[in-house]
Amino acid sequence: MHWRRGEQLGEGTFGKVYLALNERNGELFACKRIGLAPDAGAAELHELESEIRLLKTIDHKHVVRYLGTELRRSEGLMYLFLEYVPGGSIASMLAQFGVFSEVLIRIYVTQILRGVRYLHDRKIVHRDIKGGNVLVNDSGVAKLADFGCSKQLQGMRTGTLEQSLQAIQGSVPWMAPEVIKQSGHGRGADVWSVGATVIEMATAKHPWPKFSNNLTALFQIATSTEPPPCPDSLSPAAKAFIDRCLQIDPKDRATAKELLADDFVMNSP
């Protein structure tokens, strides 16, 4: 593909994201620039490219589409081409507009769950659901972004150990206890993160707000027998929904399919 890079749109866990132009058809898309570790082997790159080819088959209204890749091995770079979603993320909307109404939370969580169920039905675990990774287009349609490749990229990105820890810590308040304890990272971990994202939308803050230090939050989540506090402002239905997501034992959590039948979601406009 012949393409040209434009302005920077943001910076994710694994690299900077730019607006890009397809010079053959005029299509705009997002381009994520990822620095690869100098010792990234051919087998690792092949595994990553194979997974991205699989992700290119994903086609759902509430999941950002992967369009392709370009590897520049001599420069130590890989470019991921993604669907461009104008409008920003839920996190950026919260920063601009403040706490969402419960009606709006219902709308967005329903759309998020539809995307999560679609991925889970295809045995894909998102791994990093949070407001910053849910993009919203100018028609109010929410789409899950930054899914699928995080495990592979974590071991291949360049940078110092400190940078790697910062990348992980950025998502700590949304992480399930078993992820932090490295005892599991199945579909239940995504469900926990959905519940944490509902708290984020209801408060315009990350879960566990009293822990401003991510390392403190890391320890708290790993050792706590209680989930993060639920906002008092929410309705009983919303609190019950969050409770179904934030069970300490992942076996006790509802599935995305079950949550789509929850009273809180079913009352969505």
TrEMBL record:
Residues 3-265 form the Protein kinase domain. The keyword Aminoacyl-tRNA synthetase does not apply. Coiled coil: none annotated. InterPro entries: Kinase-like_dom_sf, Prot_kinase_dom, Protein_kinase_ATP_BS, Ser/Thr_kinase_AS. GO terms for molecular function: ATP binding; protein serine/threonine kinase activity. Keywords: ATP-binding, Kinase, Nucleotide-binding, Serine/threonine-protein kinase, Transferase. Gene3D superfamilies: Transferase(Phosphotransferase) domain 1. CDD domains: STKc_MAPKKK (cd06606). ATP binds at residue 32. PROSITE patterns: PROTEIN_KINASE_ATP (PS00107), PROTEIN_KINASE_DOM (PS50011), PROTEIN_KINASE_ST (PS00108). Belongs to the protein kinase superfamily. This is Protein kinase domain-containing protein. The lineage of its organism: Eukaryota, Sar, Stramenopiles, Ochrophyta, Pelagophyceae.
